[in-house]
Every structure is written in structure tokens, then in C-alpha cells.
## 1
Amino acid sequence: MSSLVPLPGELQACVQFCLLVGAFSRSRVLRVLLFFPVLAMSLYMMLFTTTSKDSEDIVTWTLIMTSLFQASDILFINDVASLRLVGQSTPTNELSFVDRGKWALRLLSTPRAIGWEHEPRHVFPPHPPKSQSKWSFILSQSLTTIYYFIILDVVHTTIVLSPAFRRDGVSLTSGGYLLRVLNTALHAAHIWSYMSFGYTAASVLAVALNVTEPSDWPAIYGKWSDAYTVRRFWGRTWHQVFRRTVSTHGDFVTYRVLRIRKGSFLADNVHRYTAFFVSGVLHAAGEYGMFRNQFWEKSGAFRFFLLQATAIMVEQVISMIFHPRPTPTLRRLGYVWTFLWFFYTLPNWMDPQFRQGMADNYGFSRSLSYGLATGQWKLVA
């Protein structure tokens, strides 16, 4: 650890610049060539640098690996010139200099492909109606932002006060089943409220500045009522920020490398395992930033995400054999199954991260709920 150097922000900026140049360029050859310096810079940052704080390294290293896989998609394995925005009539390689620049910026800033022809609209919550006025949207989203802020503040306080989330604390699985349920729910609630708060706040700012339209902001999470199978949880309820990154690599391995017939059971599962493996790589990169020479001992990302693919395959086999209809009773049983699955798989993955101090950065500098609970308004995780 002592031989690591401070993470250079210039390299992070350079990676994003290479992505932008590649997306902007009409040359397929240039895009492929740009991938290799991105690869080299990313590996250097992950292997030889640090932010000097474990709880920051895990997030930053996940983002570095995400950018690397985004580069693989945009620069290396796919020809992004084939992508079009909704309503785009001019072929991408024939766009003007200014329009191509806007096109490239839009591509890099919309990982969920909102507003693109390849957007998986059947997965996302409905877009806000085009008829909704700017100020109506800003008011609605501002209130929603406050709602998520309150939830996030309460969740932060509960986590900070719980010994299961402290660096020197007890295991998430200690204290019996009830506390294990609570700890699992708290961790999920933190991710959900944190991302929802940031997303809705960004939507208010972007629309207020006329950068985007209200209709460009479907909710980041789907309906919890859709999560009556593990497959629907990952495919509809949970955020889809990594969806294109993992699915394009699944397409590449399944249909272009192995040339498996689309629609077959084998193709479905090779694609699924590849996508979840890529997700495992993204999160394992963050764990490497946190654990370093203890990575193989403490990392649980690969196990967790490959288990998700296995659970979905089991659901697929059951569906193929029994053809169950989603009746109200089966849905209720499905909610129980999905909850118990994450109750079983999630804590064992997260435990080593909290023992390494992942919650050190949780919380705001001032907290109303923490003040009400402890009498100290300054929250220090």
C-alpha cells in the first residue's frame, strides 16, 4: 500500500476525453486505437494509485472499471455510428461537426440510453409526459428530491448508529434473523435512496438550465411490485445504469464470439452469465481498490453476481416446466422468494466491505435525524 501514488485526476479526465474523441470520430480505426491508451491508463490507476481512503477507493475503482467497459463498448467491440437518437433522420457519420459533438456528449452522458432508439423502454418506468411543463416538473421533482433526502438522512443515521456497519463492528449476519433482515434492508435502502436523491436532484438542475427536457427523466428505479422474481428484480426494479455496458458484452460473447442461436436456452444463459460476470468485474474492481492484497480473501462480488445468474436460470427452468401464470398468490410467494434470496446472498458479500470501513463516508455533515437521535447535529460516520 505504501508504494501507491495519489490518484491523478488528470488521467481520469484523459480517459473521458478519449471516450469523447472516439464517440465523436467517424473513423472506426481511430476508435479502436483509442481503446488501448484507455486500457493502459485504467490499469495504471487501479494497480498503482489510491485516493488514500478505502471507502473512496471502492467507489472510484468501480467507476474506473465502468469507464473501461464503456470504452470497450464504444471504441472496441461495437460501431457506435450505427446508433441513433430517437427522431434522428441523418446517419450519424453524416452529422455536422456541431451535431456530432452534441450526439457524442449525449451518448456518453446517458448510460441508460434515454432518448435513443436502443433504449429498452419496456424495462423503464414511463417517461414524464411531453405535455408536462418545465416548472411543473421542477416543482414535482424538487418535492421528490426532498422526500429522498429525508429517507436517506434517516437511513444514514440508522447505519451510523448500528454496530453492524462499523469498521470495528459485528457481522451483518449476527444477532439472529431479525437483525439480518434489518441490516439487509438498510443496505438496500441506502443504495436506493442515495441514487434516487442524486438522480432527482440532477433532473431538477438539468431541466432548470434547459439542458434536457422533463420527458428525458423516467425514474431511476422501477416498481417494487415488479420484483416477484429475481429476474424481474434485476431487469425491471433495480436501476439499469449498467444495463448497456453488461448487455453489449453479453451480446458480443454469445452471438459474435460463440455464435449461439438467438432465443435458445443456451444463448439466454451464456448471455446472462456473461452480463452478470461483467457486473461482477465492475464491483470486484471496487473491492480491489479497498482490499488490495487481501482481495482474494475478502472479495465476494463474483460469487454474488454469478449466484444471481444461477437463481434466474433456476426460475427459467421452473417456468419452462410448469408454465406458471403470475396469479396474486404466486406473486406473493414470489416476493417472499426474492426477499429470502437477497437475505441469503447479500450480507455475506457486503460484510468484509463494512469491516474495511465502507460506511466511513456515509452521512451528511449536518443531520436532522442524527441530531434528534443523539443531540449532536454534526454527523461523523
## 2
Amino acid sequence: MSDNKGSAYGTPASDTSFRRNYDLDEYAQKAKVRESAEREEAKARYEAKMAGKKYYKPMTGDETHTRARREIIDLEANVGKTTLVPAGAGQGKRGRSAGFYCSACDLTFKDNMQWVEHINSMQHLRNVGETGEVKKATAEDVHRRIAEVWERLQEQKKATTTTLKERLELREEEATKEREARRMKRQEELAKKKAEKEAAEKVKVEYGDDVRIEGEHDEDDMMAAMGITGFGTSKKK
């Protein structure tokens, strides 16, 4: 037997050959770049504080314009849920703890008012890649927005639409109700006219033909007031 120990692939092996080898020079360079960026940020924060201004993350040129929020802020998503947080995480806003956590800014807020104010702040907008400035809308943008809203309304209407059979049954039910309402109205009108006619006939039967019915002898009264006795002919027979 050979005394040379090796791996199954014919390469030399040792007790620690399975471990990952790190490039120390590469990680040292990364640490140097990170420390340089941290120093520059600390200097910028100090200068902004001395000038009485608030520090914001410098823009890289890849940011987009701020747009109106299209999704609804769900403030009740974590109601009734259990969240595991690190020990001692309840001190301050930095880091993740119980409450509304912003992963872009690594901050936690205890109430919804602070959370809404934060997501509308310049600090949050810069961290999510927005400039904080709103793009001026053109006529084409307005028309496109109107078309999007109209399509969304049509989709919502389609979602609530029932099947064809159910729609036909609903329409038939509405038509039946309309016919019944018209029939009841006609019956009421006929009953009213019949009652008025019966009342007039009853008056004539009880008091004879000399009883004056309202509006019945208006033409004769007008002729008598004008001295006209009739429209007879003056031609001699």
C-alpha cells in the first residue's frame, strides 16, 4: 500500500481541507472602503448639524421621481400576531423591535402616526431611491391616468357581475315589479273615475235633471249672460 494520503480526486488532503479559504487582502480592501465612506458620512452629518440643517443621504443619480402612493397602508397587519425581537431591542428607534419596522432605514416606530410621517419623510424617500420631487404631469400623463382609472373601475364592475342566468332572473324580477306597479296605478285611476261617475249618477237620480253638475252648463250660462238665446236662422220659411 502507498503511504501517500490523498483525496478521492487524487489531490493532497488534510484535516482542514474542507474549510473555506478567505482572501485577507480582499476583505481588508472592503473594510478600508467602508471605513472611508463612514468617515465621509460622519463629516457630512457634522457639517449639516453645524449649519442647522438635517442630513440626507446624498443622491447617486439613479433616483426616480416621487409618485403618489397606490397601495393602501395596512396599519392592522400585525394585530394579534406575535413577533420575536432581540433582547434589549426596545431602546430607541434604531434596529428592529416591536412596532412598525422600516427595513430601508433600519428604524422601528411605536405608533402609526410616527410611521406615516416617516414613510413620507425625505430621509425614507432617499433611502428607497426617490428624489422627493414630483414630476410635472403632462396632458398625455393625465389621459393615461384617466384610462387606468377607467379600466380599474370596469374590472371592479366585472368582478361583481353575476352569471348570465342570474342577471336574466334579476331583470325579469324587475320587469315583473314594474308591470305590477303600472297595473295597480291603472286600477286606482279606473276606480277613481268609476267613483266619480257613480257619485254624479246618484245626484241626478236623487234630485232629477234640474240639478246643476259642476261644469255641465257653463256654455249655456255664458250665452245667457251675452243675451244670446240661440243660433237659429233668420231665413223666412
